[in-house]
Amino acid sequence: MSANDEPAGQQQTGTYHSAFLKACRREPVPHTPVWFMRQAGRSLPEYRKVREGIAMLDSCMRPDLVTEITLQPVRRHNVDAAIYFSDIVVPLKAIGIDLDIKPGIGPVVENPIRTRADLEQLRALEPGDVSYVTEAIGMLVRELGSTPLIGFAGAPFTLASYLIEGGPSRNHERTKALMYGDPQLWADLLDRLADITAAFLKVQIEAGASAVQLFDSWVGALAPADYRRSVMPASAKVFRAVEDYGVPRIHFGVGTGELLGLMGEAGADVVGVDWRVPLDEAARRVGPGKALQGNIDPAVLFAPREAVETKAREVLDAAAGLEGHVFNLGHGVLPNTDPEALTRLVEYVHEQSAR
Ligand SMILES: Cc1c2[nH]c(c1CCC(=O)O)Cc1[nH]c(c(CCC(=O)O)c1C)Cc1[nH]c(c(CCC(=O)O)c1C)Cc1[nH]c(c(C)c1CCC(=O)O)C2
């Protein structure tokens, strides 16, 4: 890609030449870039303070708060990218689904989607439904300067699980019952979710996000053949829909060791890996032409500094032969993590990988 092909937003802000976007494009980097899933949130006292008395979903609709919360970990940890503060259920709320995020539980849906008639709840998402997102990203891009902003959305399978189960689920039994029991209804549901997700990512990219991550957090519950048949077409539709913007597309899930190849095939530029598969092995499973993101176990941050650094060293060593590596945790920052441990980890990775 020549300089003239730089996506317009990245050209204006200078983010194009950031270590994060270079690593996503599998170009040489001055140091391994680092960011953390859930870097904004309860691990930070300054987050708990600004969120006091404000419900999670309400905070997601206030551009001033979203901007402040998104910037907090960037100021504190010197991470190489910001991630837009929101939640995967925000676009569903925006099209009128009756849902809430219950503290300590997660998203809870009032009228779960289980029949064809229920599909009517899922109308198309228009940019005007999420004007607060456009506004917040405009503010953020100005504040962030050359630090890239990652936009994100939930993937069709993970969203479907919340919508069908009505809340968080360990076994996804109603979800799988629908997937196996009524393949046509399942396909139609995932297709609608793909359109909503794609529209939501487009809003974020057009407002100035320089990369996007699709969170398919719970897809590791599926066997590869079922993923390929019943889920991959919808996720691939999302990636295709945003391909022409030229911004890196990251694809992440938990417990996806057996799915890594297919998740890359679905259309990602960067495949997120949890801590269960070392990155050199993950690279073999994903194949050439893609960068990897990960993959320190978030629980390791609770161990003494030396143990964290040993683990970080192992991740960097496993990533040494990769085409591109974005350092991250294997899943989100746990709420009781000591923020100092995160700051030190960023410093350590930057130092150890400086070239
Ligand atoms: C599965 C999922 C959800 N939400 C998300 C996912 C995919 C990522 C993953 O696998 O962790 C995505 C998400 N949710 C949130 C972000 C913020 C951006 C960032 O990474 O910093 C992101 C990327 C904020 C949030 N989303 C939520 C919080 C906590 C609510 C609060 O602070 O009051 C935050 C900071 C709520 C939420 N929302 C969800 C859960 C499971 C929870 C936790 C419930 C709880 O333990 O209280 C659904």
UniProtKB/TrEMBL annotation:
Q: Name one GO cellular component term.
A: cytosol
Name of the protein this chain belongs to: Uroporphyrinogen decarboxylase
User: Where does the record place the site Transition state stabilizer?
Assistant: D87
Binding sites annotated in the UniProt record for substrate: R38, Q39, A40, G41, R42, D87, Y162, S217, H331
UniProt KW Cytoplasm keyword: yes
List the NCBIfam families hit by this protein, alphabetically. hemE
Q: What is the lineage of its organism?
A: Bacteria, Bacillati, Actinomycetota, Actinomycetes, Kitasatosporales
* Family note: Belongs to the uroporphyrinogen decarboxylase family.
Q: Which GO terms describe its molecular function?
A: uroporphyrinogen decarboxylase activity
PROSITE patterns assigned = UROD_1, UROD_2
Q: Could you tell me which species this protein originates from?
A: Streptomyces chattanoogensis
Keywords of the record, alphabetical order, are: Cytoplasm, Decarboxylase, Lyase, Porphyrin biosynthesis
Please name one Pfam family that this protein belongs to: URO-D
Described by its record, this protein's role is as follows: Catalyzes the decarboxylation of four acetate groups of uroporphyrinogen-III to yield coproporphyrinogen-III.
Q: Where in the cell is it found?
A: Cytoplasm
